[in-house]
Write a structure and sequence with these properties.
Radius of gyration: 15 Å
Structural class: mainly alpha
Strand content: under 5%
Strand order of the largest sheet: 1-2-3
Shape: globular
Number of helices: 8
CATH architecture: Up-down Bundle
Helix content: 40-55%
Number of strands: 3
CATH topology: Chitosanase, subunit A, domain 1
CATH class: Mainly Alpha
Distance between the termini: 8 Å
């Protein structure tokens, strides 16, 4: 799948599009097009919403698509991991624990260390193409349930939207 198609689905169907939000109680603070101020600054951009679509795409590509090596995965697993990284991870620029990679590693039976290296890629490519997306989504659901909180229902709705997009051929 192309990065553009995965980005469009993730941004427009899951992240709310090109809008500025600042929800009370959201630890991420203000976001534009799903990009937090902290992530934009860490990725080398000044916080100046609205970002133009090229800047948005550059941030998503460098911080999520490339970090998780999505272009090396079969369709639609590439888009499934991408949306997981966008929702759970905070991107390479923030040097966090790469929980999204650990979720992926658990899904494919690799010891979760947060490093998407050659062993992780080889294991991913050995999983049946039609089962890999669901394995990722099951682990993503399990992660949401484990962390709990008031957003669990919304997060589970997110993974259900991804499942429906796969079933209908959108992804």
């Amino acid at each position: 799948m192309s990065f553009a198609k995965a980005l469009n689905f993730t941004l427009m169907d899951l992240e709310g599009g090109y809008v500025l939000t600042d929800r009370p109680g959201d630890a991420g603070g203000p976001t534009y097009a799903g990009i937090t101020e902290r992530l934009a600054v860490a990725a080398g951009y000044q916080w100046h919403p609205p970002f133009d679509p090229v800047e948005v795409a550059n941030i998503y590509r460098s911080q999520f698509w490339d970090t998780c090596r999505c272009s090396e995965l079969p369709e639609p697993s590439d888009a499934v991991l991408f949306q997981c990284a966008v929702n759970i991870g905070q991107g390479e620029a923030l040097k966090i624990d790469h929980e999204e990679v650990k979720i992926f590693q658990r899904a494919i039976g690799v010891t979760p260390d947060g490093d998407f290296g050659p062993k992780t890629l080889a294991a991913a490519l050995s999983v049946a193409r039609d089962t890999l997306p669901d394995l990722i989504l099951e682990e993503q659901d399990a992660y949401y349930r484990m962390i709990g909180g008031s957003n669990v229902k919304g997060w589970l709705n997110r993974t259900e939207k991804v499942r429906k997009a796969i079933a209908t051929g959108v992804l």
